[in-house]
Design a protein that fits this description.
Radius of gyration: 17 Å
Distance between the termini: 11 Å
CATH architecture: Clam
Length: 264
C-alpha cells in the first residue's frame, strides 16, 4: 500500500477526530451520496432547510446511522465569520468545549463514507490525552492508532504502517485534556437547528495543506454525532458515530505502537 493511500485513510478516521486525502477499500459497500444542500446564513444562527436525517448516535445498540451530508456548506470560509459570533453562538461554543473537555474516555461504533460514496464501518476507542484507536470491520485490514505522540495507519494484511506526528493532525486538540475552540483552532462557523449543534474549524498544515473539519453534536443531549473532513482538494469524508459508551475504560495496550515495523 502506497504512502499516499495510507495518508488518505488516516485523515478519514482521524478527523474526528481527523492528514486529509481518503480512499476506502475496494471491498467496501458502495452507497449513493446525496447532493449537499446549500444554506444561506441569516441572523446570528443559521437555520438550515429541512434535510434527510439519519439516526446518528442514539441509544446504545441502535442500528448503524445514515450520515448527514454537509448541510452548512455555504457557511464555510465566510470572511470574518470567526470574529462575529453572537451570544447564542458563543453559548454553543461553550457547550462544545465543555463536552469535549469533560469526555475523557469514549468508545463506540462508526460508519464512514468516503468521497467516492463507499461505506465502511468499525469500532473506535478514545482515552485522553492523545490516544485513539479505529478498527475497521472485515474485509478492511486497516487500523488507525494514536499513542499520545504519533498517529499510525496500519495495514494488517500487508504488515505495513505509516507514522505521522499527532501534532500535525486535528486530533491534537480533540484529544487534548482541555478544549478551547476559540483559541486552539480557526473557528469558521457555528450553527444550530432542532437536530444538531455544528461547529466548523479550519486546519492549516504545511505537509498536506488546508482542510476543514465540521463536527456535529446532538441539539438535546450534546453528544458527538458525526464529523466531516474536507481535504485540500475539496473532497469530503464523513464519519458518524453511535452506541457511545463513556463508562468503559479502554485497555491501555490497544494504543501502543510498534515503531520497529513501520515503512515509509
Amino acid at each position: 500500500m502506497t504512502g499516499q493511500f495510507m495518508a488518505r485513510y488516516a485523515t478519514a478516521a482521524m478527523t474526528a477526530l481527523f492528514v486529509c486525502l481518503i480512499v476506502v477499500p475496494a471491498q467496501a459497500q458502495n452507497v449513493t451520496m446525496p447532493t449537499p444542500r446549500q444554506q444561506q446564513a441569516t441572523g446570528s444562527i443559521a437555520t438550515p432547510a429541512p434535510t434527510a436525517r439519519g439516526t446518528v448516535g442514539q441509544a446504545p445498540h441502535t442500528q448503524p446511522p445514515n450520515p448527514v451530508f454537509n448541510p452548512f456548506a455555504s457557511l464555510l470560509g465566510r470572511p470574518g465569520f470567526s470574529s462575529s459570533f453572537s451570544p447564542e453562538q458563543r453559548s454553543i461554543i461553550d457547550r462544545v468545549n465543555n463536552y469535549l473537555s469533560n469526555t475523557q474516555i469514549l468508545s463506540g461504533r462508526f460508519v464512514q463514507v468516503g468521497p467516492d460514496g463507499r461505506r465502511t464501518a468499525g469500532e473506535f476507542h478514545i482515552a485522553k490525552p492523545g490516544r485513539v484507536r479505529f478498527e475497521y470491520d472485515d474485509p478492511s485490514p486497516i487500523e488507525l492508532i494514536a499513542d499520545g505522540q504519533s498517529v499510525v495507519v496500519r495495514d494488517r494484511r500487508l504488515a505495513t504502517q505509516d507514522v505521522y506526528p499527532l501534532s500535525q493532525t486535528p486530533l491534537r486538540f480533540l484529544l487534548s485534556d482541555h478544549v478551547d475552540l476559540m483559541h486552539d483552532t480557526k473557528l469558521l462557523a457555528v450553527s444550530a437547528d432542532d437536530m444538531f449543534n455544528t461547529v466548523v474549524v479550519e486546519e492549516k498544515n504545511g505537509i498536506v495543506g488546508t482542510s476543514r473539519l465540521m463536527i456535529m453534536f446532538g441539539a438535546k443531549d450534546m453528544q458527538l454525532k458525526q464529523w466531516t473532513v474536507t481535504d485540500p482538494q475539496g473532497y469530503d469524508t464523513t464519519v458518524a458515530v453511535y452506541n457511545l459508551d463513556t463508562s468503559r475504560r479502554p485497555d491501555p495496550s490497544m494504543f501502543k505502537i510498534d515503531y520497529t515495523n513501520y515503512h515509509n
